[in-house]
Every structure is written in structure tokens, then in C-alpha cells.
Amino acid sequence: NLFDVFREKGPVLSIRVCRDSVTRKSLGYAYVNFQNVADAEKTIEEMNFCKIKGRTCRIMWCKRDPSLRKSGVGNIFIKNLAPTIDNKALYDTFLEFGEILSCKVVPGEDKDGKVVHGFGFVHFATQEAADK
Prior knowledge:
Blueprint: H1 2-7, E1 12-19, E2 26-34, H2 37-47, E3 51-52, E4 55-56, H3 67-71, E5 75-81, H4 87-94, E6 100-109, E7 115-124, H5 127-131
Antiparallel strand pairs: 1-2, 3-4, 5-7, 6-7
């Protein structure tokens, strides 16, 4: 259970798994609230891209204001990614340019289901980092 996974890093106040309002199926993400910021920081540093129940998880700060995400500021698009590039590899590659808010690889697949080059997005905290 998620509580057991995260309480190893520090006292957890709450966990909210987001679910479809009709089917009640998990949407694949959750919010974890720690008692203190240091434990949350440690969790992000140590557990980002770890596997939980067989799925690689991206762990990041919650950004309640959608205007930054919707504005496109600091967001870059990368195409022709080799099939071997995953979310962690993309993150590690671009981290040297600045703080990353989120990143995502979309693997490519041809009409026969064969894995081909994909694309990805990296959302930096600032436009200056994205311009590098």
C-alpha cells in the first residue's frame, strides 16, 4: 500500500489517490502530504523514478496554479528520441540546464506495434533554462 511505501521517508499526514468519478478506477496518480518539508524533499530526491507496484513513478512538488503549465513558458519538445530513452534518462539529460518541473517521454510505435523513435516534453521552472 502507498502509505507503507512513503512512511519509510517520514511521517505522512495523508495520501489521496485520484480516481475516476464514475468508475472509481485509479487515474494513476496521487497526492502525498508529509508532516514536514524536509521529508518531502528527501522523498523527491531519493524516490523519483522508482518503481511502485511495477510502475515507474515520477515524484514532484504539487503545483496548484495551472497557469504556469498552461502558459507553455519553459516547456520544450524533443523529437526522435531513441526507444531506449525513458523518463529518467530524459530528466537526467536536461537537468544540467535548470530546475525541471516535469518531464515525460512518449514512446513511438509504428502501425504494426513495433517500437520506434518517440518524443518527449521537458517543462523547466524558467524560460531561461529552456532557452539553454
